[in-house]
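tool_call: predict_structure(chain=1)
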Amino acid sequence: MKPKIPNLLLILAVIATFAASLLAQSKDMTAVYAIRNAKIVTVTGATIEKGTVIIRDGKIADVGANVSVPSNAKVIDATGLSVYPGLIDSNTVLGLNEVASVDMTIDTTELGDFKPNMKALTAVNPHSEHIPVARMNGVTTVLTCPQGGIISGQCALINADGWTPQQMAVKGSAAMALNYPVLGFGGRGGGFFAIQAGGVNDAQRQQRDRQVEALKKKIEDAQAYLKAKEAVAADKSLPARPVDLGLEAMIPVIKGEVPIRVSANKANDIKAAVELASQYKLKIVINGGEDAIKVAALLKEKNVPVILSAVLELPDSEDAPYDQAYSRAAELHKAGVKFAFSSQGIQFIRTLPYNAGTAAAFGLPKEEALKAVTIYPAQIFGADKLVGSIEAGKIANLIITDGDPLELRTKVKHMFINGKQTDLTNKHSRLNDKFKDRP
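tool_result:
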């Protein structure tokens, strides 16, 4: 039986459609835009009450109160509106998880405890339905991270628009995701099993200690691998060491070029993770940080930032104050600890600004709340020269709103990602439009 010959015309049509889409996107990214008569909240500088932002070649070309508008610019009259930098969510699985109940749509976790060479960017689905939903309230950039095991892999800082993962990438390797071993840590995929009602037993302590020692050995192996590699580079007479992809991926971490993003919530676990990073001279970011205020002095001393878990949460125990999660950010701010907000997932990315807004209602200065979803996460993940504020030369990730983006009633009127005016429709808005006038 002869093999079937693919329909050449169909293949050519698909290629032509894809090429046309890429060409259209390329033209849009090279378009020149002028946003005029807007209140411009630069975040890192003074707010301009009435000014202009020029976008050219995907970047912010100029910003100020007295900026000339190029003759070829597409003008957006933003009278009565405000321009803000796009918001950044500091911990998600955006693009890696589509339908939680369908395993084939989930690409967050690989088997094994140590997977430093796993890259979230390679698994991102640019056409996920979650991405337009994430954009709807102003989120233009997210950190998307692998999960499971002790070292999960490399988090990617991505923009929420693009035809390919590479087009979306701001930093392909922005952090190494690490779960600090705790009592009860384990199970398939590096999950957690419940501590029995009788309390922690010796077997659980021993398991935790073995996992901590295994983590230390992996770091020490990476240090030795780097030294051997440097020795071979300096002396060509030495035999080359076989390439180990896992240890190779750890080199930027060992050098301090990429931080470890350690998920830890209890005070003892946070303290142990910080001590581990100090021992091996690693840059560390704490993710979760529910008890971070209890070790705030240590975090400030070591200059360790915290990615806070969702603010819009109930207290974690019946004896905790009702505003435990709401006031955590204000307490860390008073203690001098840098932090950023996150949705800690996928389905609630659109609520990111309201996490920051709620924290502002419970003691955090509004300017700090805005910085914690813009410039602070950019600084934490080494992308502050690219995103996080409105400055000439940065990527044009901007939102134009009719009010404060941290307030529930505010609407995003226009969005730019990579200098491209981005469609704000999504599955939620389409369903709303479809059914809102039904009897």
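agent: Confidence is low (pLDDT under 50) at residues 187-198. Proceeding to next step.
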